[in-house]
Amino acid sequence: MRKGLVVVPELGPLRSTRPRVKRLADALRPSLAHAASVVKPRLARLTSAPLPGPGRSGPRPSRTGWFTASAATAGVALAVGAVAVAGPFDGAGQRTAERDRAVALTLARGTDHDGGGVRAGGPDTVPSAPPVLRALGAAAEPATSGKVPPSGIAGVLGPLLADPALGDGQAAAVVDVATGTRLYGAHPGQAFTPASTTKIATAVAALSALGPDHRLTTRTALDPDTGELVLVGGGDPTLTAHKASGGWASLRTLATGTAAALKKRGVEKVTLSYDTTLYSGPSRHPIGVNDNLAEVTPLTADEGRTDGSGSGPVTRVADPAAEAARTFAGLLKEAGVTATPPGPSKATSRATTLATVSSPPLSDVVERMLTNSDNDIAEALARQTALASGQPGSFAGGAKAVAARLTKLGLPMRGASFHDGSGLDRNDRLTADLLTSLLATAADPARPGLRPVLTGLPVGGFTGTLAERYADGGAAGVVRAKTGTLTGVNSLAGTVVTKDGRLLSFAILTSGTTDPQSAQSALDRTATTLAGCGCG
């Protein structure tokens, strides 16, 4: 990896050029107005609340100190709002959620900007402005000079990793992203079952193979000879039939456009078919029928979910492609075109495309996958990587293509073994060295196309699978990490901004855990300790 200073932006820091000043001011006004609407009632409650006194723990602070802490935390909230205008938010509103919750959390418990901390008896702390802004996408420039002594990291991590809750086997690595130096390693080259941290590898491979601007397209095609209308799956796992599409490709929009094109041809009745030939091999994951993953097919609407949810485990339909086609037939009817009950087919080279809908850029799809630990998206991206690499669109083809892409990037692949894109397969193997290297590579300014791997990681106390974690441990907003959980397996890999302003990538893999909740808590304590470590 390149040596020297590394900048890890969401879309880069603000630049003070005259043409952008007005645009930034205009963009900031709604954010500040929203922040003010949240801040005002919270400030009112804080200023009217009684100060700590008799019967309450801790010495009684001065009223001036109490108000100073409250004002400082409001400043952090507004600073976070300012960072928000550096780039657009993703389709799932991830960065919006980070900013809004930062306003609420920092009002309740914040530190002074000078790093002096909250006064005795005051609210619990969350990070002050500089590390929060770095974690949200500002420059990851170290706040102090010099290297982090590896002995400092070993001194704090060693005892934590010895926690019996972490099972009978552990591996860990910590890397200073700015220098590429490994600061800590405990069996970093030993391969473990990674569970969902596999998605980090899938994300890097897909972005490397396809690019962050790539879109996945679903289309309809009309055969000129038979008059057959074919719904052609393009492998978009985010295609939705919901009335509110949320910015994702809409099956309803595709039906409306298709009906309009047919009516122009004077066609109001069609034979409907659907084409899933983009993928090959088994469609069912080796784990079998499971609420965590639908049948893997290039045509699906809302991931075959049966309850209207957008993430998490839920019962899936037996045949997502057939169900999507049936839904499409109903939408055609609403648009004035009657279709026969759909069956499988293949669009010929002579078929004319009538309408298309495309996913948001792959960068957004990757972020959604990582934030929600979405297995359906992960398996789709592994197949898309395979197709872009000349491999079959299958579990085996995806695994081979992901490994080849990472090898091409020069990553440490010794011991690594892929069998799927999601990490649900217990035969997958990754090392802590590989995971930290993947994250450091995604932070390399020479590879901006990989940045969604970092921006998509769940944020401690804010988003995705970490939304309910780290909120009370002092690491909210500065730990961004991908979780991994299978029976007997717990893992965590991501980035953390330390209290002295350094961006570290870390990975912890375990095996033989018997209490998932205790193992998760032990992993969280380790990441929280890294966040609070000056390590100097």
What does this structure look like?
The structure is a single chain. With 536 residues, the chain is α/β, with parallel strands linked by helices. Helix content is 38%, strand content 13%. The protein is built from 14 helices and eleven strands. It has helices spanning 18-48, 63-84, 94-108, 129-136, 150-161, 198-210, 251-264, 320-334, 362-372, 375-388, 395-408, 432-443, 452-455, 516-531, and strands at 169-176, 181-186, 217-222, 228-232, 269-275, 338-339, 343-344, 352-358, 479-486, 489-497, 503-511. The strands form two sheets. Strands 3, 4, 5, 6, 7 and 8 form a six-stranded mixed β-sheet that branches. Strands 2-1-11-10-9 form a five-stranded antiparallel β-sheet, sandwiched between helices. Strand 10 (489-497) and strand 11 (503-511) form a beta hairpin. The protein is elongated.
